[in-house]
Amino acid sequence: MKAIAVERGDSRPRLIDKPRPDPDPGDALVRTLRVGIDGTDFEVVEGTHGGFPAGSDHQVLGHEAVGVVEDPNGTDLEAGQLVVPTVRRPPGDATEYFRRGEPDMAPPDECLERGIDGAHGYMAEYFTSPAGFLVPVPDAFATTGVLIEPMSNTEKALEHAYASRSAFEWQRDAALVLGNGPLGLLTLSRLQSEFDRTYCLGRRDRPDPTIDLIERLGATYVDSRETPVADVPAVYEPMDLIYEATGYARHAFETIDALDQNGVGVLLGLPGDDEFDVAGGRLHRKLVLGNRALVGSVNSHIEHFEAACETLSALPDWFGDELITDTFEPAAVDDAFSAAPDRIKTVIEFDSR
Amino acid sequence: MKAIAVERGDSRPRLIDKPRPDPDPGDALVRTLRVGIDGTDFEVVEGTHGGFPAGSDHQVLGHEAVGVVEDPNGTDLEAGQLVVPTVRRPPGDATEYFRRGEPDMAPPDECLERGIDGAHGYMAEYFTSPAGFLVPVPDAFATTGVLIEPMSNTEKALEHAYASRSAFEWQRDAALVLGNGPLGLLTLSRLQSEFDRTYCLGRRDRPDPTIDLIERLGATYVDSRETPVADVPAVYEPMDLIYEATGYARHAFETIDALDQNGVGVLLGLPGDDEFDVAGGRLHRKLVLGNRALVGSVNSHIEHFEAACETLSALPDWFGDELITDTFEPAAVDDAFSAAPDRIKTVIEFDSR
């Protein structure tokens, strides 16, 4: 079968041929429909994040997938059922985090991540997975199901951020998303119904499809070249929630300055080892006197995938169509992994329903 | 009546004489029993925190008080009832934060603080207060009632910290308190029943009464001169909760390094304007990949005072006695506000029950 993988010592993904996998007991076989590409895939290709499966000379990419159950193999799934796979897997025996259904809370070195760290991903015509890690989704997600995994990360991050504000009457007036990539835009769409005013920060010139999408959602585009994060309260307004999806280390700290009294910043980016000066005393004091919080969040569990389905189902139809700007066949792997200024979300299509 | 106040232009507190206040409608008159001294009082004396009441040439100190209702003045309170006053007051008309019973969540510039910022405190033979800001407490608190206000700040801080960890199954194995002052020790006593192992960080040599108290509580003393906060995981263990009560700005950031996976740091200190270098990228990444959180917290509301009563009631009798090391008459104001190495909590006693 066809698969897209990076090989040891290589610096770009290739279309390879490998045997179709046989499901082990408890696994189902899934025929892949579509797999999304995100920033983590590029980091895996570059070798800056994750790692190859033990003993393998290649790693199949992809962790944002939707597919159809080809062979339930005795599991509770049904042939023809549309499913989205979760990402984390136990490294051997299931740990307490997996047993309680919270693999997202496991230490990173106590889990594998399909397509990212120590396990093959989903960019192949077929993949297998324990049935318990395949989330059945409605038939309407045959094309937009690739958005469920990234949106599940937002569901988890917001669940934790909201929990941190649950001990008092929190006002959700204004929210700011840092980053206008696919995850930022998905999050912005999620926040539209929960905040009176929403903002999304990027550093692109008009005309730009992400700015069009931000404004079509009813949000305000903030150009970080004109208005750095710390200046947002003065130029726009202080924020009750800030969602960081840039991976720019300074944003974690500038977020504190842009939060309103009792606000929360939720961090999802994975920056490098930058060191820099901070006004540490002032930031510490702002956290305390303003009852502010910073909450880090990674990955998601099955309930977040289910919540992501509900969130995406409630969005207008045009949103998924405008977000997924580029769809490629597996053979066009070079094009799919190249940069283009008017792209938002790129998808590899292996098959259709 | 006698009062302890700082006068404009002066740099130390003095015993003064001022008229006994008359309660306004809705206010009760309280006969003060005891008032505790804490770090904030010293900052008010030095002029580095808070400010004088508008139009006043002096500020009566004190925000940790216990007293007896002398004149209920038509309110629901009863004469002879033991009460503890809360600290924040509306600057004029009650704002939404006061109306909903959450003055602790108000912006600092939208409230007065008795004894700290813009309003006289409780270090006087009598004080008045709206009855709704006087918390009735059991008779057993006639001497230890001064600990209720500081413990209420811990109740609020931990409520917010625990809320931030409520979206998953959080494990409470180990907790570290930064700071062995009265607030740190009160918090340590509170954490004893909730964590398997507790630690308290200070920088004092043995023999020392705070180290004795830490060990009598069953906790481990961590000397920050030997083990800086960031080294705590390697020397002891990573922490599920860290409670910062030092006001040392670097501790807010070092806390991230000392937290275990899924841990939370709760910040209460108010440092100055220190600037310094941080390994910002690594700290940002640790927050994200470990689902870690930092939660700032200030002040408390009436339910936290009530919770503090319950917490203190459950502690062994020796604890309050060992924590309150020094009790002075108002005339001994100079001694009360001077430093002494074997002091933990200092109290001014105006009267007894």
TrEMBL record, chains A, B:
Keywords: Carbohydrate metabolism, Metal-binding, NAD, NADP, Nucleotide-binding, Oxidoreductase, Zinc. Its cofactor is Zn(2+). Signal peptide: none annotated. Substrate binds at residues 40, 113, 149, 153, 299. One of its GO terms (molecular function) is zinc ion binding. It comes from the Archaea. Residues 1-23 have a biased composition (Basic and acidic residues). The keyword Nucleotide-binding applies. Its EC number is 1.1.1.47. CDD domains: glucose_DH. Residues 143-350 form the Glucose dehydrogenase C-terminal domain. HAMAP family: Glucose_DH. This is Glucose 1-dehydrogenase.
